[in-house]
Design a protein that fits this description.
191 residues; six-stranded mixed sheet; 5 helices; elongated
């Protein structure tokens, strides 16, 4: 026996070549991710990513100004392997957000709008917040809500300061330059 040899075996007699996954939907997610070679950056196992995103979706207040699909798509959550993991895992762990994850992947998600100044256009503009023309409604308890529609040169077309309201509807025209909102509830498209 040499100095580096031990008088007993160091191999685990119960070790297997195949990984063992947890039972239930988390294990199904992890097994599918391993089979596909998908990795979730800082989450190991990948089901932790899905658990975290489901928790974030469930606890997000509407006042944050983004629809669930918008939050997923515009928050860099739907890139690379993580997109595949979420498409697989959200229907298993938080099925109520299945349509939101599908909308985020397709790019056809409803956009909501919180406080800010938005350029009125249907196109995405680098470095600019945009809002497409249309009719929007803010609902909820609003105090000292201010909104304004302006021309491209900043001249006010229409505006209102509302000390207290439960529902406000505004139609933004394609000829408008900007839409500004402060301290109002989240603006959602009227269907």
């Amino acid at each position: 026996m040499t100095d580096t040899e031990l008088p007993f075996s160091t191999e685990d007699p119960y070790a297997t070549e195949e990984p063992v996954y947890a039972a239930g939907p988390e294990g199904e997610i992890d097994e599918a991710a391993a089979e596909q070679g998908w990795e979730a950056d800082v989450y190991d196992p990948p089901s932790q990513l899905v658990t975290q995103v489901c928790s974030d979706l469930l606890n997000r207040p509407d006042e944050e100004g983004e629809s669930p699909g918008q939050w997923l798509a515009e928050g860099s959550r739907m890139e690379g392997d993580e997109k595949h993991i979420l498409l697989l895992g959200i229907p298993k762990l938080c099925p109520e957000y299945t349509s939101a994850v599908k909308a985020a992947v397709s790019g056809k998600y409803e956009r909501w709008f919180g406080d800010g100044t938005y350029v009125v256009t249907s196109k995405k503009l680098d470095g600019e917040q945009t809002i497409p023309p249309g009719t929007y409604r803010a609902e909820g308890s609003m105090k000292d809500c201010y909104w304004e529609r302006t021309r491209e040169d900043g001249e006010i077309i229409d505006n209102s300061f509302v000390t207290s309201a439960r529902k406000i509807t505004v139609t933004i025209s394609s000829s408008d330059g900007q839409f500004t909102t402060e301290r109002c509830a989240t603006w959602k498209p009227v269907k």
